[in-house]
Amino acid sequence: MNIPANLKYTKDHEWIRVDTGNIAFVGITDFAQSELGEIVYVEVETVGDKLKQEEAFGTVEAVKTTSDLFMPVSGKVIEFNEAISEKGSDDPTLVNSDPYGSGWIIKVEMADATELGSLLDAAGYEALIS
Questions:
Q1: Chain-centre distance for alpha carbon 65
Q2: For residue 7, what is the DSSP state?
Q3: Which helix (H) or strand (E) segment is 109 a member of?
Q4: Domains assigned to the chain
Q5: pTM strictly above 0.85
Q6: Which of 15, 41, 88, 101 could make an S-S bridge to 7, C-beta 3.0–4.6 Å?
């Protein structure tokens, strides 16, 4: 199972990677995508919205189930990855094939970077899924 050390993780299987300043990328973990199976649709209708930590920002739909996506930190959703949307390249399977790279889901402007301290590091996340 791929669990990059440079990311922070939620108990709900989202990851966050700080890009520059208070801007961060968010997606679902390799474990989450493998448990869900083939991703067929990702819906995010919260672009432009300010959400609190642990609030739902969207959903991911797999062949057999739909799952909510939760904010790892409070902040404003500033971008949805069009490469995984039906408006973009229509390839939600990027979430399966490259969950930590081109399969990212949203970009967030963090309101309080100290909330990162409440998240799991790679070792903590690995313990959670073991």
A1: 17
A2: -
A3: strand 106-110
A4: 8-112 (2.40.50.100)
A5: yes
A6: 15
On whether the CB atoms of residues 128 and 120 are closer than 8 A, the answer is yes
Q: Which two tokens stand for residue 105?
A: 């889901």
C-alpha to C-alpha distance for 125 and 122, rounded to whole angstroms:
5
Helices H / strands E in the chain, number of each: 3, 9
pLDDT tens column, 87-122: 545 678 899 999 999 999 999 999 999 999 999 999
Q: What is the mean pLDDT of each run of 10 residues along the chain (130 residues)?
A: 96 96 97 94 95 97 94 98 72 91 97 97 97
Q: Locate 34 and state its tokens.
A: 């493998």
> What pLDDT, on a 0 to 100 scale, did the predictor assign at position 93?
86
The answer to whether residues 27 and 104 touch, using CB atoms and an 8 Å cutoff, is yes
Q: Which helix (H) or strand (E) holds 32?
A: helix 30-36
State the burial class of residue 45 (Cβ atoms within 10 Å of its Cβ: 0-12, 13-18, 19+): exposed
Instruction: Say if residue 12 is exposed, middle or buried (CB neighbours under 10 Å; 0-12, 13-18, 19+).
Output: middle
Q: Which DSSP state fits 120?
A: B
